[in-house]
Amino acid sequence: MIKGNFIDNLPKVYGIYTGGFLAFIIIMSIAEQMGMTAKTIGICFVAFTVAIYAIIGYLSRTAQADAYYVAGRQVPTVFNGMATAADWMSGASFVAMAGGIYFKGYGYMALLVGWTGGYVLVASLLAPYLRKFGCYTVPDFIGTRYGGNLSRFMAVVVLTVASFTYVTAQINATGTIASVALDIPFQYAVYVGLVSILLCSMLGGMRGVTWTQVAQYIVLIIAYLLPVFWISNKMGAGFFPHFMLADEVSRIAELEAQFGFVKNSAENLKEVPKGLAGITKAHSAVNATPWAFISLALAMMMGTASLPHVMMRYFTTPSVKAARKSVGWSLFFIFLLYSSAPMLATLSKLSLIDPTLPTGIIGKSITEVQAIDWYQNWNQANLMFVSDFNGNGTLELNEFFMGGKAVVLATPEIAGLPYVISGLVAAGGMAAAMSTADGLILAIANAISHDVYYKIIDPKAETAKRLVVARVLLVVIGFAGATIAALEIQGILGSVIWAFDFAMSGLFFPLVLGVWWKRANKEGAIAGMFLGLVSGAAYLVWVRTGGSGFLGITQLTFGIFGSAVSLVAMVVVSLMTSAPNAATQKMVDEVRIPSGKSILGKQH
Amino acid sequence: MSKQEQHWEKSRGLLFMTLAIWFVFSIGIFLFGAEMNEVTGPFGYPLTYWFTCQGSLGAFVILIFWFANRQEKIDEEFGFSERGDD
Predict the structure, then answer these.
(1) Eight-class DSSP state of A123
(2) DSSP A17-58
(3) Residue B30 near chain A (CB below 8 Å)
(4) HSE-CB for A148 with a 13 A CA cutoff
(5) Tell me, what's the pLDDT at B38?
(6) Which residue of A has its CA nearest to B54?
(7) B25: which chain A residues are within 8 Å (Cβ-Cβ)?
(8) How distant, in Å, are the alpha carbons of A306, A499, A588, B11, B18 from that of A139?
(9) What is the value of pTM for the model shown?
(10) Residues of A with CB below 8 A from B24's CB?
(11) Is B16 within 8 Å of chain A by CB?
C-alpha cells in the first residue's frame, strides 16, 4: 500500500489517517450514547491506536543500515518536525505539565520557556552541522571529530546515563496509562507498554520510529487540544482560549486574594495521601526569584541541545538546509501543545475554585462535595482528597488536594464532557509516552550497537549482523528500563529533569565546541565529558544527601555546575595539549559549509 | 581572506545575533519578571505571565525560521548552498 513513492504520498497517507482517527472518535461517541461502558471505551482507544502504530512499525521493516539508523535520510522537514515533537513531548509534558503549572504557577513555567528556547540552540549551534557531518549517532560525531575510541566511549556513557534516566520515567508513564485504561496491575502493565514500544521500533529502527512518531503526534495533539477548546466553550470562557482567558486569569487572582493562602499544620498534612497537593502559589503572579527561574530555564535549554534522541532526529532530513527548517517546524508543533497547557491549568483551576460556577466546590459543604460522582471516582483513584481541617463544615481552598496528573485526566470529567474524551486523553498520553520511550531506547541501542560494537569491537561486522546486534540491544535495554520502572523508585517529572542535567553536564560543550572551536582536541573533550558528568552527578548526590548547595543551584539544576566544570576542563586541557592535526582542522572547515559531501559516507 | 573564511565570519555574525535575541526572550525578560508583570500585556494577560505562556515560546518559533532563512541567504551568497531537495 505505502511502498514505492511513499514519501511523495505522505500528506495523503497521514491525511487519511487523521480522518480515520476522527471517524473513530465519532464512532466511539455514538457507541457511548448507545450504552458502551466507560471501561470498554478506554480499552478500545488504547488498543486501536497501539495496533495502528504496530502496523506502521511492521510496514517500515528494513534490512539496510542507513534506513535502520537514519531512516534513509529522506524525511521531509514538516513530517520530521511532527516526529520530533512527538519524540520530544513525553508523558511528563502531556500528563504532568498542566498540573505543574496549576500548582506551582510562575516558578514551574520556567520549564515551558526552557523546553522551547533550547531549540534555538539546537538550530543555530548544532543540528545543521551534525547533519552535514553525516553521522548515525551523537557519539559517532564525537568519536570522528576528536578521534580515538576513548572519546567515543565516553560519549556513549554520557548518552546512556542521561537517556536511561529519562526512559524509565517514560516506561513508567506508559505502564500507568495502560494499567488505568486496560484495568490490569501496574507491574504487568509496564510490560504491556514495553511490548507496544518495541513493536514500533524493532523491525524498522529509525524508519519505523519516524513514521509511528508522526502518527503518535497526530493522536496526542488532537487528544490535548480538543478538550481544552471544548471545556473553554462549555464554560463560556471564549471559543479560542489562548486569546480569551485574560478575564479568567484575573478572576483567579481575585479569588486567591479573597480566600488567601492558609498554611496547613504539619499534623493536618499527614492526613493527605502521598503525592497530592493543595493550591499554595499564586496563579499568574511572579512567585520565584529571577535566578530560580532563569537557572531552571537555562538548564533545560542546554539539556535540550545535548539530548541525543532529539539531535538524531535531524540526521534523518535530506539536507542541511532541511535540518534547519525542520527544527523550526518541530518547535512550532511543540508550541501548539505547550501554549495550551497554561490555558488548561487556568480553566481547570477556575472551574474548581469559583463558587459562582456550577462545577466550583470551594465554599460548598464538605458532605456535598464528598457526594459528587467525579469526586468519588478520583478520590478512589488516589488523585483527589478533601478534609475539614478547621471543622466549619465548609470546604476551604486549603482543604482541597489533588494529584498533578488529575488536571489533564480529570478536568474533562469535572467539566461534564462525555467519557469518550477521557478515552481520547488516555490514548494521547499513551502516544506521548510511547513515542519518547521509542526515541530514547533507540538512541541508546544505536549508540551501543554502532559505536561500541561496530566501531570499537568488530569493525568488520556485516550489515546483517550489525542490525541483529542493534535489535537484541533494543530488547535488552527496553527490558532493563521496564524492570526498573516496575520498581517505581522515582516520580516521572523529577527524573525527566535529571536527564536534562546529566546530558548538559557531559555533552553540551564537547558537542558545541566540536563545531565552533577548532582548537578543541581529543584530550580536552575526554576531560570535559568525564569531569562534567562526574561533577554533576557528585553535586546531585551531595544535595540529595543533605548538602546545602551553592549559588542557588538545586538538585533540579545541577547541570549548570556540571557543564561549567566541563567547559573549564575542556578549555584548559585542550590548551595544555597539542592542537588537533591538519586533517581534523580541515574536517571542521568542511562541516561548516552546507554543500559538498558529508564527512562520513552514506554507509559507514 | 578566502571565500570560506568570509562565509564563516558572516555565519558567526548571524549566530551572535540569533543568540542575542534568544537571550532577551529566554533570560532578559525574566530578570525583571516581577516589575513587568504589573503591566497589562497582549490579550489582557499580565505581561510576564503572557511571555511564559505564549510570548517567549512564539518568539523562539519565529526566531528559528528567521535564522534558517538568513543562513540560507548567506550560503547562497557564497555558493555553498545545496542543490535540489528541500
Answers:
(1) I
(2) HHHHHHHHHHHHHHHHHTT--HHHHHHHHHHHHHHHHHHHHH
(3) yes
(4) 12
(5) 82
(6) A339
(7) 117
(8) 11, 17, 16, 25, 27
(9) 0.92
(10) none
(11) no
